[in-house]
Amino acid sequence: QVQLAESGGGLVQAGESLRLSCAASGRTFAPYAMGWFRQAPGKEREFLGALSRTGVTTYLADSVKGRFTIPRDNAKNTVTLQMNSLKPEDTAVYYCAASESRISSRLTDYDYWGQGTQVTVSS
Prior knowledge:
This protein is an all-beta fold. It is 0% helix and 48% strand. A hairpin with a 6-residue loop joins strand 5 (46-51) and strand 6 (58-60).
């Protein structure tokens, strides 16, 4: 199996930035599409963006486009989420996920999930 671990969450003020990281371990010799999701209390998990298996294509949700990016990393089996101009409504648990198939905005297309990292944005 593949294990994913998010890090970088915390408490920030509105307008500030955070960079989340996701490290993969286990069966990481295979290529994966990597996605980022978030889930606020009482709400469904929301797609944020994804990086293709080749690392060439990125796809960002309209809700965060222009503020969030998924930069390419030199390190293997890692993915980051750069979050700028954070708003209180960005408060959620942020998850990374890996897909053995393709880049997707659908939760069901992802095979592995991290445990999440809390991001809290104060006004």
